[in-house]
Design brief:
Blueprint: H1 9-21, H2 32-42, H3 44-65, E1 70-86, E2 89-112, H4 114-182, H5 187-222, H6 246-256, H7 258-279, E3 284-296, E4 306-318, H8 326-393, H9 398-433, H10 438-445
Antiparallel strand pairs: 1-2, 2-3, 3-4
Helix pairs in contact: 1-4, 2-4, 3-4, 4-5, 4-7, 4-9, 6-7, 6-8, 7-8, 8-9
């Protein structure tokens, strides 16, 4: 393969542009938004949260049913045999077989059961908790898809950057060998170029392995492999967060972050446990009614058949006494669990505030870092061009060119990393605040190639 003697700035820029803008084929691949929709539709955590919500709604029906009418029919039939012998009275013997059957219809209705009312209210609060858990799971999918997606893009960029560095080092190695052959350079230049070339070969293996690893991570979120992904536009610029006040984001997160809302609802559910435990010591009143019919072909005392009808309507009063102390122990247990959940809520608020501050600073510092890295790239490319010119006129060595080339590659890698980190921190900021949704991913998706 023939390589030009001078790896020009325009050639290098073209190679580095491919690392960021991607090829035309890549532009036809899947994007962040489409993969999120696909992942949200089959993610196991989302499916589990959705099933939990269905179960929570069914528990409301069960709780409400405890205050409704309980009715049923009870029936039975028996074959009986009675054999009586009296000592010293052989004629006083009874040997009788007879049949009995009965059927009963009953209706019961709780009139006053405070524990049932508390259970209904608690079940409705638990539904809200399950709804929040489902939304949190969907948001978590968005977060994980974004992380996995940009990890793949960064890994692909690194492969392209290493490829560009490999091409430059191949040229420099060939040039060093030619210069040594004609006597214009020492073997040291050749050995240095060979060493750098060998290093980039090892780095190329690592970067390709990283691509495979990140693709597997993306597959784990989406559920399948995606061969081609849309890449980040070269001119993508992430804006600073709005509002610009970090504390405004923190204040919102401390009340709207899903972890905080879930902790609040968990606390509310546990507070109803106190009501239910206290209600277990209260009196209850139920209404009851039943009607029954019985028939028999005989009895123990008679061989004559009988039949009867009976009905009953009334109320049932019950007042438990906590003689063992178990009811009071249950109340103390629920009070302790409520206190635990109250502290969990405070912990969730603090964690939400910390997460927002970290993500906010990640966005603001990332925007500044991207601008600085863009300027650093221009400077590095200028230095590389001037170093190569110095090599041609004899004031720079091949080692100087290799170092300049390495600097360009490193800055370009740092620029790509800064861009992806800034985008991810923007996603994390909205996730930590509890407002990340499909519209936000659509805005992030707009940074990708069309």
């Amino acid at each position: 393969m023939h390589f030009p003697r001078v790896f020009s700035r325009s050639t290098l820029s073209a190679a580095l542009f491919l690392a960021i803008a991607g090829t035309t084929l890549a532009a036809q691949g899947a994007d962040l938004l489409s993969l999120y929709r696909e992942a949200a539709g089959q993610d196991p955590a989302v499916a589990a949260a959705r099933a939990s919500l269905v179960a929570a709604r069914e528990r409301v029906t069960q709780a409400e049913g405890a205050n409704g009418f309980a009715s049923g029919i009870a029936a039975g039939a028996n074959a009986n045999y009675y054999d009586l012998h009296i000592r010293n009275a052989p004629r006083a013997q009874t040997d009788r077989a007879y049949l009995t059957a009965s059927v009963q219809a009953y209706v019961n209705k709780p009139l006053y059961r405070p524990a049932n009312n508390a259970a209904i209210e608690q079940a409705n609060v638990a539904v809200k908790l399950s709804e929040l858990s489902l939304k949190a799971a969907e948001m978590d999918v968005a977060n994980r898809v974004a992380q996995a997606y940009f990890d793949v893009l960064l890994a692909q960029d690194n492969v392209t950057l290493v490829g560009a560095q490999k091409a430059a080092l191949t040229e420099q190695l060939a040039q060093a060998k030619r210069n040594f052959e004609v006597g214009t350079a020492t073997i040291v230049d050749t050995n240095e170029a060979q060493s750098r070339y060998d290093q980039v070969l090892a780095q190329e293996i690592l970067t390709r392995n990283e691509v495979e690893r990140t693709r597997w991570a993306l597959r784990n979120v989406v559920g399948r492999f995606e061969a081609t992904l849309k890449t980040l536009r070269n001119n993508a610029q992430v804006a600073l967060p709005t509002p610009s006040s970090m504390e405004a984001w923190v204040t919102r997160a401390e009340s709207e972050a899903y972890a905080v809302q879930i902790a609040q609802q968990t606390l509310a559910v546990s507070e109803y446990d106190i009501k239910r435990a206290q209600a277990a010591k209260s009196w209850t009143l139920d209404a009851t009614a039943n009607v029954s019919h019985a028939q028999a072909t005989g009895s123990v005392t008679s061989g004559s058949g009988t039949w009867s009808y009976s009905g009953l309507i009334g109320v049932s009063f019950n007042l438990p006494f906590d003689t063992t102390g178990s009811l009071n122990a249950r109340i103390r247990e629920t009070l302790a669990l409520v206190e635990k959940n109250r502290n969990d809520l405070e912990s969730a608020r603090r964690t939400a505030g910390l997460n927002v501050r970290q993500a906010y600073l990640g966005v603001t510092s990332g925007v500044a870092s991207v601008a600085a890295q863009q300027q650093a790239l221009k400077s590095a490319e200028t230095q590389l061009a001037s170093t190569k010119l110095g090599l041609e006129v004899g004031v720079r060595t091949n080692l100087d060119v290799l170092n300049a080339q390495q600097q360009v590659t490193q800055v370009q890698r740092d620029l790509a990393q800064a861009r992806y980190n800034t985008l991810l921190n923007e996603v994390r900021l909205k996730a930590a605040t509890g407002i990340l949704g499909e519209d936000d991913l659509r805005a992030t998706n707009a940074y990708l190639s069309n």
